[in-house]
């Protein structure tokens, strides 16, 4: 991974207080059960029963699922973790959580999951801290 040096444009870089990353699904009960197993916990918030719920992965970093049949299967989310093997321990206990491993030497090790709708969720251990 290479960081890009920014040239000054006269405007400040946008910063945010929270990040919400959404994943569109077709079947709320099936998807919420799948993500509950992946994250190892029930949702931290139910936005609308049977439609939308959220997990807070760390302060200010949220993943949510929402029923949206037109967009389902097109989401891509990557979560950087400190310990990939530990993160995989719970998820791999379920047949529903098959994944493929990818490595880019000196950059990352990652496990790529597909949820029941085909959305991609990647757990990645970054090897380079820059």
Explain the overall architecture.
- The protein has two helices and eight strands.
- The mean pLDDT is 89.
- The strands form two sheets. It has a four-stranded mixed β-sheet with strand order 1-4-3-2, with helices on one face.
- The N and C termini lie close together (8 Å).
- It has one domain (19-126): 2,3-Dihydroxybiphenyl 1,2-Dioxygenase, domain 1 (Roll), CATH 3.10.180.
- With 130 residues, the chain is an alpha/beta fold.
- The longest helix is centred in the N-terminal third of the chain and has 12 residues, at 28-39.
Structure, briefly:
By secondary structure, this protein is an alpha/beta fold. Helices cover 15% and strands 38% of the residues. The protein has two helices and eight strands.
């Amino acid at each position: 991974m290479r960081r890009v040096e920014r040239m000054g444009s006269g405007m400040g870089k946008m910063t945010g207080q929270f990040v919400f990353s959404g994943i569109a699904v077709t079947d709320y009960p099936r998807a919420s059960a799948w993500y509950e197993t992946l994250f190892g916990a029930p949702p931290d918030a139910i936005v609308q029963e049977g439609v939308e719920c959220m997990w807070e992965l760390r302060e200010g970093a949220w993943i949510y699922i929402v029923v949206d049949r037109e967009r389902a299967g097109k989401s891509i989310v990557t979560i950087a973790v400190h310990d990939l093997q530990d993160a995989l321990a719970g998820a791999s206990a379920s047949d529903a959580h098959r994944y493929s491993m990818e490595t880019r030497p000196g950059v990352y090790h990652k496990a790529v999951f597909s949820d029941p709708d085909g959305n991609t969720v990647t757990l990645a251990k970054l090897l380079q801290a820059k």
